[in-house]
Amino acid sequence: MKILVTGSCGFIGFHISKFLLEKKISIVGIDKLDNYYSVNLKKSRLKVLKKYKNFKFYKFDLTNKKKIKKIFKNKKFDYVFHMAAQAGVRYSINNPRKYIDSNIMGFYNILEISRDAKIKRLFYASSSSVYGDSKKFPLKENYLLNPNNTYSLTKKFNEDLARTFNKYYKLNLTGLRFFTIYGEWGRPDMFVSKIILSNLKKKRFLLNNFGNHYRDFTYIGDVVEILFRLLKAKKQPSNQILNICSNKPLKLLKIIKILENKIGKISITKKKLQKADVIKTHGSNNKIKKITFYKNFTNFDEGLSNTIDWSKNYY
Ligand SMILES: NC(=O)c1ccc[n+]([C@@H]2O[C@H](COP(=O)([O-])OP(=O)(O)OC[C@H]3O[C@@H](n4cnc5c(N)ncnc54)[C@H](O)[C@@H]3O)[C@@H](O)[C@H]2O)c1
Predict the structure, then answer these.
(1) What is the DSSP letter of 144?
(2) How much is the average pLDDT of 113-129?
(3) Which of 88, 151, 231, 263 has its CA 20 to 30 Å from the CA of residue 157?
(4) What would the pLDDT profile of 243-262 be if each residue is shown by its tens digit?
């Protein structure tokens, strides 16, 4: 089996690539090594992947349709995991064009070429942010969407475009609405890694909304196991959208307490609400549990300890 993973030097793309490589599946990775956050961290992830004989890597931008086409022609992929995107809600306020280029044009190229290459299924990253601010929890996949920034709008548009490619061209698709994924090799712009890092570097941590946000933190180890089971699952709808979440929202202030018990006092400056942020995310994971039979989600304490151990070792 041959699989293309876009964004293979990113947090989730790296983990799914590594997991599948261990299962002896051939992986081709594409990434442009964007500098939205540490390029060195991306290069370190790539170094790990390059140790596997069944891994090949190409560095380029997904807006380059010619290059993608050439790789598809040469490699004959069975499946695609499209994890490349310009991520980050807050960054989208000042850099909207990057989201249009990578998340709309890049995604469109992958869709079109996957259709022409008749791949078996395209798994693509969406986001919990498509729900926007909501009052009804847990969020189910069929709830109304209310994206309120450029990032979440591009993710919602991806889902809409995917639906039309399924309807008119019979491309099989699975949209993955990730909810705040954390863990080893995590993104330094996201809460868990960011606060651990600021503690290790003895810097003050700026805490938005005075720590009153709730996030449905989901451990990366659970995510890759779920994605692998999805790859194997029989009889899935030809177009589906799935929440990828633990269904256990935690308040950031509570996490800080848990963290302080593990790594000592954290110096914090509390700030008001950031205008692109939603107050709470909490997804239902019934659908994903039904399809994959994955039930034993890692508890936050354990996932956090793993992340701290990795961070102390890496930074
Ligand atoms: N991590 C989360 O909690 C989370 C939550 C919701 C949604 N997502 C989505 O999941 C996907 C993976 O997220 P992640 O946390 O691994 O992000 P990430 O930023 O770590 O990884 C994305 C990778 O894609 C690459 N990339 C970006 N634009 C590209 C382009 N035009 N061409 C080639 N490569 C490009 C980047 O260099 C990066 O390495 C993204 O689509 C993201 O929006 C992630």
Answers:
(1) P
(2) 98
(3) 231
(4) 999 999 999 999 999 999 99
Which domains does the chain carry? 2-314 (3.40.50.720)
Residue from 32, 48, 105, 241 whose mutation best tests the ligand 1 pocket (most atoms within 8 A of CB): 32
Q: What are the residues facing 241 on neighbouring strands?
A: 175
Alpha carbon of 95 to ligand 1 centroid (Å): 15
CA–centroid distance, 10 to ligand 1, in Å, is 6
114, 171 in Cβ contact below 8 A?
A: yes
Ligand 1 pocket residue status of 127, Cβ below 6 Å: yes
pTM of the model: 0.99
- Interatomic CA distance for residues 127 and 153, integer angstroms: 10
Q: State in Å: Cα 92 to ligand 1 middle.
A: 13
